[in-house]
Amino acid sequence: MSDSIRRHDARAVASMRAAHQGISDNIQSLAEVRQELEMLRRVVRTMVYAQVSGEALALHEDPVSTWLGLPVGATPEQAMERLLRTQAKVVGTSACPSCGAQIQDLEGIANEQCQWCGARLEQEG
To answer: 95 lies in which domain range?
Structure first.
């Protein structure tokens, strides 16, 4: 077998491996999208039920708490703070007092937390 055929075969194998990896990545992404869609369906059903039954929506209970990324046992106050943070407008950045990373200053949020080291940065709300 000539060197040019070997090089061509090697390139073809590498190309097929890359295509296979791309397909695998797409399948994984689709699975993640399906999970997120199911979570959103659960949240919407919970919201509709609360609305129709006249009950207050319990932000700190599943599935809303899971959707908000809250830990198990979160309080209603923690849920409200998380929700406010997700909707707050970014008005600037500040340096973390512990590690120096840039922390987003959120409108109306006075106690920012560094996503890298967990330190708290007290700010004027």
So the answer is: 88-125
